[in-house]
């Protein structure tokens, strides 16, 4: 079920600093006051998006594509362990020249070219070119941040980079700067290669734009051209820039100020000259060119850290951006000219209260009259899901990395899906673009994606990166196929296909018509009835000595033990819904009273932790489902006393188990465990009554 967010709803460097600050404050106040006025009136939201990403049952198969040499952040020293990566590669794109070459920037200052099957080749050393001002030793996005190639690169040899410089190491003056003292510069450079087909750069360069930042975080994250713009499209050759808030938005209103570029998406014409510095052009159709005091470069605003953006290659050509959250919400927005995404008066689809005395109380519900403020809210989002003992002043370790709408050919199941993830833990997610609707009352449902390596083994990005901090990023080639990158070990993997989770063959023999009581062995026979085609647990079970496990169940004795197996049945809970903590279980891999596995399906909305897949192996039950994060699990499977269809697919060879409810094509729960590889099936509960009917067991 998708989450509901609640009710909807130019200053050049040569201008004296005091007028700049006054103008910025005035413009900021005009937009920020409505959100601020409401902040003190509402109760804080402790769980902004309770609905977690659902299991998709889809696995991505990947194979290693490239490995990059180790690099270090210049000039050093480095004190932040998060910067001590093997190689800080953060993007892959294919050059628009039909050569098959792909460009990969390393934040530590190297620009590599690579072809299929070849080793990375150094094309240009950005760090050496701009030394000693080049700086990458502090801040996760500092260094050589991004590279993009002019759509006409094959003819004109032009491409663009963004890098950071230490303000104290250069005499250059930024074109724009924040209200607080400038410490770092984000610099956009245009390069012109003498020979566009060469594998090592020779040519010229010129500076396009220089922006000052007051801290080492949330700088210029991405610069890019719209690859969906055709030769005669007015967007053709226009450069978009995702500019973060410099880490200042949580304390001021700069992201709302139209007089500053910070916290904005900019759109400029690299070949024009009508900007304040005369080095680029401002497109006439940009949304704020006629707004007094506003920067004409601004395309959209109100962002904290717009980390990655992309366009859907389909006919719609929609633009999406992933915006890293401050306190609780990671968001994906559809971007249109003139949008105000609300930061720092809003975080995702919630009020952000900068003035909150308690830092745990900064997220508030939207006001009833929110529509009048004109904010644009996310089309997809997830929250941080912190542990119960989390200190809200610390970083829980979540950061969205924007991805791509897939329109390639190798992954037909994911066509039309926006594939993205989390930078830190490497989780892979998708949402259907059909569900990503601007102005909708509900956010798009998110789904988890699994990973399999070239050998068919299920893995995680943490496994592939060989580190708990993945630093995940995405790449896309000219054919629309996708790549996964990790700074942790400097490797790239190509996504080569998909596979269905728990897809073993269970279409052999089929066992049916076994509901006669003679075919069942209950723990307590007196508690069971077998009328017609049903197995009825007529009395609640009672906890027994030994390891923690289901109190009462009956095992099917007809037929053999099963390894790869599919179990289909209808189940219901007989205990009234007003009574909490109700459940039924489907047993599989049963070998003895203290050695079996089971799927636990709960009725109570308040006990998420009870939905899950468990194994009992001569010890207290162990929870093994992927949906369990230590605090919550899958959403409630059964919420009434009606009959519900349940399917459990168990693949002994891979240890994969998938649980489906009520005919859904996507599993409610998934798990991998090879503790037990065969056994009998059954049905039961803990301390309530329930029944099963129409049991079918299929196995090869």
The biggest beta sheet is recorded as:
13 strands, mixed
| Low-confidence spans | 1-40
Mean pLDDT across all amino acids: 92
Compute the number of helices.
4
**What percent of the residues sit in helical stretches (DSSP H or I)?**
under 10%
Query: Which structural class should the secondary elements be placed in?
Result: mainly beta
Radius of gyration computed on alpha carbons: 28 Å
Overall morphology = elongated
The total count of strands amounts to 43
Termini distance?
35 Å
Keywords, separated by commas or semicolons:
700 residues, mainly beta, 13-stranded mixed β-sheet, eight-stranded antiparallel β-sheet, 4 helices, 5% helix, elongated, disordered N terminus
Outline of the structure:
This protein is mainly beta. It is built from 4 helices and 43 strands.
Draw up the topology in text:
Layout: H1 17-39, E1 54-67, E2 92-94, E3 102-106, E4 110-114, E5 121-125, H2 126-130, E6 144-149, H3 153-156, E7 158-166, E8 184-193, E9 203-213, E10 220-225, E11 239-243, E12 264-268, E13 298-301, E14 306-311, E15 319-323, E16 329-335, E17 346-347, E18 350-352, E19 363-364, E20 380-383, E21 400-405, E22 417-422, E23 428-432, E24 447-452, E25 458-459, H4 461-465, E26 472-476, E27 482-486, E28 491-500, E29 509-511, E30 520-522, E31 528-529, E32 534-537, E33 552-556, E34 565-573, E35 583-592, E36 595-602, E37 612-617, E38 622-623, E39 644-651, E40 656-661, E41 669-672, E42 680-685, E43 690-699
Parallel strand pairs: 1-24, 2-26
Antiparallel strand pairs: 1-28, 2-3, 3-4, 4-5, 6-7, 7-8, 8-9, 10-11, 11-12, 12-13, 14-15, 15-16, 16-20, 17-18, 18-19, 21-22, 22-23, 23-24, 24-25, 26-27, 27-28, 29-43, 30-33, 31-32, 32-43, 33-42, 34-39, 34-43, 35-36, 35-42, 36-37, 37-38, 39-40, 40-41
């Amino acid at each position: 079920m998708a989450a509901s967010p609640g009710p909807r709803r130019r200053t050049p460097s040569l201008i004296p600093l005091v007028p700049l600050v006054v103008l910025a404050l005035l413009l900021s106040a005009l937009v920020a006051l409505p959100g601020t006025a409401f902040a003190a009136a509402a109760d804080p939201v402790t769980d902004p998006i309770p609905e977690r990403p659902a299991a998709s049952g889809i696995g991505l198969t990947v194979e290693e594509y490239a490995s990059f040499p180790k690099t270090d952040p210049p000039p050093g020293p480095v004190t932040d362990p998060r910067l001590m990566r093997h190689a800080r590669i953060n993007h892959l794109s294919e050059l628009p020249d039909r050569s098959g070459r792909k460009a990969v920037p390393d934040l530590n200052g190297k620009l590599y070219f690579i072809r299929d099957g070849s080793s990375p080749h150094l094309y240009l050393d950005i760090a050496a070119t701009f030394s000693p001002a080049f700086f990458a030793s502090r801040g996760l996005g500092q260094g050589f941040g991004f590279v993009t190639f002019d759509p006409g690169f094959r003819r004109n040899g032009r491409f663009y980079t963004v890098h950071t410089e230490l303000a104290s190491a250069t005499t250059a003056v930024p074109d724009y700067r924040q209200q607080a003292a400038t410490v770092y510069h984000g610099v956009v450079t245009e390069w012109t290669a003498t020979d566009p087909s060469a594998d090592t750069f020779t040519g010229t360069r010129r500076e396009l734009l220089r922006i000052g930042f007051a801290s080492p975080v949330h700088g210029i994250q991405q610069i890019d051209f719209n690859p969906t713009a055709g030769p005669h499209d007015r967007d053709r050759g226009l450069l978009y820039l995702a500019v973060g808030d410099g880490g200042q938005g949580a304390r001021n209103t700069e992201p709302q100020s139209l007089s500053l570029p910070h916290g904005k998406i900019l759109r400029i014409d690299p070949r024009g000259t009508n900007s304040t510095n005369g080095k680029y052009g401002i497109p006439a159709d940009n949304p704020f060119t006629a707004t007094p005091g506003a920067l004409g470069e601004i395309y959209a605003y109100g962002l904290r850290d717009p980390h990655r953006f992309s366009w859907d290659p389909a006919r719609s050509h929609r633009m999406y951006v992933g915006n890293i959250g401050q306190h609780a919400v990671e968001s994906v927005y559809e971007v249109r000219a003139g949008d105000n995404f609300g930061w720092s008066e809003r975080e995702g689809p919630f009020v952000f209260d900068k003035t909150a005395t308690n830092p745990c109380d900064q997220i508030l519900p939207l006001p009833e009259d929110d529509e009048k403020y004109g904010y644009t809210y996310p089309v997809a989002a997830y929250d941080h899901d912190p542990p119960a003992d989390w200190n809200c002043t610390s970083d829980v370790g979540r950061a969205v990395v924007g991805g791509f709408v897939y329109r390639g050919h190798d992954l037909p199941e994911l066509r039309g899906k926006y594939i993205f993830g989390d930078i830190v833990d490497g989780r892979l997610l998708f949402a259907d673009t059909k569900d990503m609707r601007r102005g909708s009352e509900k956010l798009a449902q998110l789904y988890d994606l699994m990973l399999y390596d070239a050998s068919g083994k299920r893995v995680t990005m943490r496994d592939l990166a060989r580190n708990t901090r993945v630093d995940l990023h995405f790449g896309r080639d000219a054919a629309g196929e996708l790549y996964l990158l990790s700074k942790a070990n400097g490797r790239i993997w190509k996504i080569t296909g998909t596979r269905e989770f728990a897809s073993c063959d269970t279409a052999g023999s089929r066992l049916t018509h076994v509901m006669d009581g003679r075919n069942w062995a209950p723990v307590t026979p007196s508690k069971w009835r077998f009328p017609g085609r049903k197995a009825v647990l007529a009395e609640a079970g009672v906890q027994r000595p030994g390891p923690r496990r289901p109190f009462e169940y009956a095992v099917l004795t007809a037929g053999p033990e099963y390894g790869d197996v599919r179990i289909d049945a209808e189940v219901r809970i007989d205990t009234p819904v007003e009574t909490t903590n109700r459940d039924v279980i489907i047993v599989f891999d049963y070998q003895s009273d203290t050695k079996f596995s089971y799927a636990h399906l709960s009725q109570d909305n308040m006990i998420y932790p009870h939905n899950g897949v468990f194994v009992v192996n001569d010890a207290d039950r162990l929870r093994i489902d992927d949906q369990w994060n230590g605090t919550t699990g899958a959403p409630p499977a059964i919420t009434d006393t009606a009959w519900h269809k349940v399917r459990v697919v168990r693949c002994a060879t891979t240890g994969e188990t998938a649980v489906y409810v009520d005919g859904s094509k996507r599993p409610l729960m998934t798990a991998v465990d090879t503790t037990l590889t065969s056994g009998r099936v059954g049905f039961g509960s803990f301390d309530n009554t329930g029944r099963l009917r129409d049991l079918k067991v299929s196995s090869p």
